Structures are given as structure tokens and as C-alpha cells.
DNA sequence: GCCCGTGTTGAGAACGGTTATCATTACTGA
DNA sequence: TCAGTAATGATAACCGTTCTCAACACGGGC
């Protein structure tokens, strides 16, 4: 694992992830890749996503349904999300104050290696309007 | 499903959940119940937890490892958690500033019915010390 | 360009958590 | 007490994810 080789598979996953808007599950990404002709294996998709995630090129979080979902993360810096639980669209949000708060609180309680989960699930403007009509 | 019957199992799950501090997984709760002598089935624990969750008597969220974890929700007031990913102990934390931030950000983007997930996972002081020794 | 060592791939098996199945049990209202 | 029917629980099925391992292919050295 010392040297990372470049393979078309890894690149295909990166591109497919960038092409898809919002969060997408590994399975969905695999299906999408097959649909567009890539005979890539499911295991490879998982591996590529895990790699992208650790390298900071992708965000990953757990959907409320328990799936791991991924998103291309052009800006390497840490940020959070506003996710519509109806249509899945996301908006990146600034959370500078929350960052500070999180690390302060963790430190106050003697916690180390703190990673925080700060995401807001709601109904986006469109879906709110659609729900109002129904 | 029209009528809900009262069974000792359901009550046992509720009590065990209240007794356990912080978040606990369904499996752990099942193990705990068996340890204290209840021959309750795993499926029943899942069902009871799901019911408690929909009734609002319990909170549920996904741990970063993908497990569903539950917490008794006696106090209706909303608060957040600092969770040790090693031993599972939790501390309740005040998050007034984060509450304000979350609703403000959601409103700014036209989102409604926003529920936020704000939890910090880390290593508690004890586990940090234990890890340092190893 | 060709070889070879080794990182990578992929099909399928294994795995762990959760949910469904279904015969049996036991609440509950009459 | 009794019948009707939710609830239970052992187990199988399910689903997403990770592991296994033989086959493959990238890339540095020649």
C-alpha cells in the first residue's frame, strides 16, 4: 500500500461522484457506473470511496436510514450540510462558530480525538411548497 | 395494531433504556436485559425501541459505525451529546448557541421542519489514558 | 518495448446489524 | 371463562459493507 497506482476505476469513481449532485450511496454510485458502461466491481467502489474519504476528497456521513452516503468535496476544508430529507439536495454551510464550540466542549470534558456530526435535515423550500399544495 | 397491549417485555425495554445512561445500541440493550435475567427476544427489543422512538419516548440516531443507538427521552427538552466511541459513556452538553445557529441557517436557506444532528464523538478521558498506556 | 514485483481488482463469500416470518403465547374485552 | 387477536421469539431472510484470494495490470527498471 506504499505506492498508490492510478487506475481507471479509481478515476471513474471520482468522476461519477463529482457528476452526481448531493449525497449518493456507494450502491447507487455503483449502479450509476454500470449504467454508463463501467464494469467496475462493487468492492472497488467501496474501496475508492473509502480512500477518497480519508484523503479528504469526499465527505461521508450516515443517512438516517443507516447507509453511508458520500459526496464530492471540492473544498478540502471541513464544513457541514443542510440536507433535504425529501429530495436529497444539499447545501454546504459555514459552521465556524460550531467548530469552535465543539472543540471547546470536547476539551472541557477531557475528550480527545473529537469528531463532530453537525448536520441539519429538513425540508427544502421547493419540497416545503410541494408539501403545502398536497 | 389498533390496540396496544401492555406486556412486561415492552416495560422491561423502557426501564432498561431509562436505567442506561446515554445512548445504547439495541444489541447492547438486549444483552443487558439478558444479563439481568430477562429472557426477552432480540426481535422484541428492536420492536419496542422502534415503538418508543415513534412515540417520542426515545431518541434514536446513527453512530458513525452505522449502528442505530437509542436513548431514553424523559426530558422533552432538546440537548446534545458527547459520546465516547470506545466505552460508550456520554455526557449531555448544552448547545444553546448551536440551536440558534441551526435554526438561523435553516431559515436562511428556506428550509422548514429542520431537525439537526449535533453530536460529538471522541475518546473520553479514561479511554484516552488507556490508549496512551497501550 | 518488455519483464517482473507488487498494488489493485472483482466475484463471491462472510459478516454484522436489522427486519420479516410464522407458529405459539398470552393480553383484553365481553 | 373464553375467543379473538396483538405480541412474542427463534430463526431465516435481508441488506449494506468488508474480507478473501486468485487473476490482473500498473510502472519502474532494463
UniProtKB/TrEMBL annotation, chains A, B:
<feature type="binding site">
    <location>
        <position position="116"/>
    </location>
    <ligand>
        <name>Fe cation</name>
    </ligand>
</feature>
<dbReference type="Pfam" id="PF01475">
    <property type="entry name" value="FUR"/>
</dbReference>
<feature type="binding site">
    <location>
        <position position="78"/>
    </location>
    <ligand>
        <name>Fe cation</name>
    </ligand>
</feature>
<dbReference type="GO" id="GO:1900376">
    <property type="term" value="P:regulation of secondary metabolite biosynthetic process"/>
</dbReference>
<keyword id="KW-0862">Zinc</keyword>
<feature type="binding site">
    <location>
        <position position="127"/>
    </location>
    <ligand>
        <name>Zn(2+)</name>
    </ligand>
</feature>
<keyword id="KW-0804">Transcription</keyword>
<keyword id="KW-0408">Iron</keyword>
<keyword id="KW-0678">Repressor</keyword>
<dbReference type="InterPro" id="IPR002481">
    <property type="entry name" value="FUR"/>
</dbReference>
<feature type="binding site">
    <location>
        <position position="84"/>
    </location>
    <ligand>
        <name>Zn(2+)</name>
    </ligand>
</feature>
<dbReference type="GO" id="GO:0005829">
    <property type="term" value="C:cytosol"/>
</dbReference>
<dbReference type="GO" id="GO:0003700">
    <property type="term" value="F:DNA-binding transcription factor activity"/>
</dbReference>
<keyword id="KW-0805">Transcription regulation</keyword>
<feature type="binding site">
    <location>
        <position position="124"/>
    </location>
    <ligand>
        <name>Zn(2+)</name>
    </ligand>
</feature>
<dbReference type="InterPro" id="IPR036390">
    <property type="entry name" value="WH_DNA-bd_sf"/>
</dbReference>
<dbReference type="GO" id="GO:0000976">
    <property type="term" value="F:transcription cis-regulatory region binding"/>
</dbReference>
<keyword id="KW-0238">DNA-binding</keyword>
<keyword id="KW-0963">Cytoplasm</keyword>
<keyword id="KW-0479">Metal-binding</keyword>
<dbReference type="InterPro" id="IPR043135">
    <property type="entry name" value="Fur_C"/>
</dbReference>
<comment type="subunit">
    <text>Homodimer.</text>
</comment>
<dbReference type="InterPro" id="IPR036388">
    <property type="entry name" value="WH-like_DNA-bd_sf"/>
</dbReference>
<feature type="binding site">
    <location>
        <position position="87"/>
    </location>
    <ligand>
        <name>Zn(2+)</name>
    </ligand>
</feature>
<protein>
    <submittedName>
        <fullName>Transcriptional repressor</fullName>
    </submittedName>
</protein>
<dbReference type="GO" id="GO:0045892">
    <property type="term" value="P:negative regulation of DNA-templated transcription"/>
</dbReference>
<dbReference type="GO" id="GO:0008270">
    <property type="term" value="F:zinc ion binding"/>
</dbReference>
<comment type="similarity">
    <text>Belongs to the Fur family.</text>
</comment>
<feature type="binding site">
    <location>
        <position position="99"/>
    </location>
    <ligand>
        <name>Fe cation</name>
    </ligand>
</feature>
Amino acid at each position: 500500500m506504499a505506492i498508490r497506482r492510478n487506475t481507471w476505476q479509481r478515476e471513474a469513481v471520482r468522476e461519477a461522484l463529482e457528476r452526481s449532485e448531493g449525497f449518493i450511496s456507494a450502491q447507487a454510485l455503483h449502479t450509476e457506473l454500470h449504467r454508463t458502461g463501467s464494469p467496475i466491481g462493487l468492492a472497488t467502489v467501496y474501496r475508492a470511496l473509502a480512500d477518497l474519504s480519508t484523503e479528504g476528497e469526499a465527505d461521508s456521513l450516515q443517512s438516517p436510514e443507516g447507509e453511508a452516503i458520500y459526496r464530492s468535496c471540492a473544498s478540502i476544508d471541513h464544513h457541514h450540510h443542510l440536507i433535504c430529507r425529501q429530495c436529497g439536495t444539499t447545501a454546504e454551510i459555514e459552521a465556524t462558530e460550531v467548530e469552535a464550540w465543539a472543540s471547546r466542549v470536547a476539551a472541557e470534558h477531557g475528550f480527545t480525538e473529537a469528531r463532530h456530526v453537525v448536520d441539519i435535515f429538513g425540508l427544502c423550500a421547493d419540497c416545503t411548497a410541494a408539501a403545502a399544495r398536497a
